[in-house]
Amino acid sequence: MARRFTGTFTQQDALPAEAIAAAVAVLQSGRLHRYNLAADEVGEVAHLEAEYRDWQGCDYCLAVTSGGQALQIALRACGVSAGDPVLTNGFTLAPVPGAIRAVGGQPVLVEIDQNLRLDPQDLQTRIESSGAKVLLLSHMRGHLCDMDRVMQICDRAGVTVIEDCAHTMGAGWAGRRSGNFGKVACFSTQTYKHMNSGEGGFLTTNDAGVAARATILSGSYMLYDRHGAGPDPQAFDQARYEMPNCSARMDAVRAAILRPQLAHLEENIARWNARYAVVERGLQAHNLIATIDLPSQESHVGSSIQFRLPEFSAAQCRGVIAAAAQRGVELKWFGAPEPAGFTSSHQSWRYVTAQELPQTDRIMATLFDMRLPFRFSEADCALIAELIGEAVMEVAA
Fold this sequence. Notes:
Number of helices: 13
Strand content: 5-15%
CATH superfamily of the largest domain: Type I PLP-dependent aspartate aminotransferase-like (Major domain)
CATH architecture of the largest domain: 3-Layer(aba) Sandwich
Radius of gyration: 21 Å
C-alpha cells in the first residue's frame, strides 16, 4: 500500500489570540460599521489603513470588502468604462477577467512564459493590436514578471498598470515591494491569502486622485475624513460628485482581525518560504518534474507551489492527480477541461471573447498547483514532495 500523508490542505492556523480579543472588543461595542464611531475615535479600519500604508511604503491605502472589489474599484478609478479593452494575463484566476467584465471592459489576454509570468514580447504585441491603455497585471501564484521591462513597455505606450497582488503581499522585485510599480495595486485578505479575514482587501496608490475616486466608489457617504490613509479633502472636490457608491467598505471586525496579523506578516513570509524551499528541493530530485524558476531579482512569498510535467499527456496528468490523492496529497491541475475549485482556464471564461493563446495553453496543460498551509511542518513538506514524486513515477511507469 502506498504511503499516505494525513494532513489537510484546506485548513488554516487559528487566528492569533490578540486578533480574537480585538474582534470580541468590536463585537461588544456594537460599532461594526467603519463610520460608526464614538467621539474622537479613529476606528479599527482607519488604523489598519494607516498601518498597511506604512508597511507597504505607499502614500494611500483603502480597505475594502474583497480583493475582487478592489480590482473593480481600481479599474473604475483609473477610468475604465464600457467597451474599453483591458490587458491581463492569459493565466490567472477568474476574478481578474471577471472584474474587467464587471465594469464593462473587454479583456485582452496576454500569453505567459514557461515560468508562469506575463510574456513581455506578447504584451508589446497585444498593446499594439488592441490599443488598450490599461494593464491589469496578475502576479499569479506569487510569480513576479520582469517588472523593469514591463513598466518600460507600458510607460512607453502610455498604458496604466494596475497590479493584482492577491498572491504577492510582501513579495518584491529588485528590492521594491510588489504593488509599488503601477498606478494602483490590489490585495486580498481572503482566507487562503497571506492574511486571513475570511474576505477583505486593500487598494494602495500614490495618486491622490485615484485614492479619492476609489474612496467614494467604496461607499464613503462623504465621510472620507475618517480614513486613516486617504488624501487631503481637496482631492475629493470632483470625485464626490462623479463616482457611484459601490458599498464595498471593510467592517471593523475584519480590520480588528487583520491588524495583529500584519504585525507578524514578515515572520510568516519566512515560514512560507522555508516550506516552499523544502518541497521545491524534493521535486527537483525527479527529472520528469519541472519546477518554476525564481529570478534572482524576485523576493518570493511561497504560500503555494507549482510544477509542470512537460512530457505527460492529459490522461497521465489525471493519473497523477488520482495517484497523489491516494497518498493523501491534494493537487490542482490547470489543464482540466472544466473549472474546479480555485482553478480555471481562459476557455471556461465564457464572458470573455474567445482568444488564441497557444503558448499559455501548452504550459497550463501540464501545470499543477498545491497550497502550503502553516499546519504543515517542514518534515511534512519533505514527505509531501516524496509522495508527489512517487505518484509521478507510478504514472510514468
